[in-house]
Amino acid sequence: MTTLTTAAGCPALDGPDARTAPATQVTPQGALWLASACARPHDTLAVWQARPGATAVLPCGTAFDVVNVPLVLGRRMLDLLWEQGPGSGPAAVHRGRMLLFTTPGTAHRLPALLAWEEWGPAAPAPLCHGHGDAVTVPPLAAGPGPSRWLVAPDTRRPWLPGPDPLLWAFLHAARGPVSIFGSAGTPANVYDVSRRR
User: Are the C-beta atoms of residues 82 and 149 closer than 8 Å to each other?
Assistant: First the structure.
């Protein structure tokens, strides 16, 4: 039987300092949250328990919506959300795209807000997955492959951004300079989930 774990050195999930480091893979509580999107959560959890290295297809619109953007734009959005905004909910990379998990209803509202902003063709419009849609999520256990969690679900009720922070991050990322190359010597970003507002 496989046990889902957090980043090395993290305290127990229920302890007072449970959010001192971001989860590098989905925690048991995060798996419960993801499975809650399904009609039969216990069946989903049983499959994950047997095969934690497998991707899964989950329905959107109840536990979460997903905003899906090109990877470079998504990294810029994620950086902006953590550096200048409220932080982010779970975020993943799947086949060269960034998946930002948001509050249910965001997939319906964000396109309307973008149309109102007249943001221009600086970046392709995000794909918004909501009620009636499904997305492929990365494996629960970290491993090689085209799918991985950047900010893994680590609680039963993770904080999720709504359409307003996503609109702000998208507009700033789309209008600002986006480079696929970081400056020399710049380490990879690590997102501290204790900073969520």
Answer: no
- Nearest CA to 176 out of 72, 89, 68, 67 is that of 72
Residue 71 near residue 79, CB atoms below 8 Å: no
Q: What are the distances in angstroms from CA 59 to CA 16, 63, 102, 132, 137?
A: 32, 9, 13, 7, 10
- Both tokens of 63, joined, read 């536990």
In the block, residue with structure tokens 């048991």: 28
- List the Cα angle 124/130/132 in 5-degree steps: 120
Residue with tokens 């959010």: 19
Looking at residue 89, the DSSP 8-state letter turns out to be: S
- Ordered per-residue pLDDT tens for the chain, 197 residues: 333 333 333 333 333 333 334 456 899 999 999 999 999 999 999 999 999 888 999 999 999 999 999 999 999 999 999 999 899 999 999 999 999 999 999 999 999 998 887 766 667 889 999 999 999 999 998 877 789 999 999 999 999 999 999 999 999 998 875 444 444 444 555 556 555 55
CB under 8 Å to 15, separation ≥6 — which residues? none
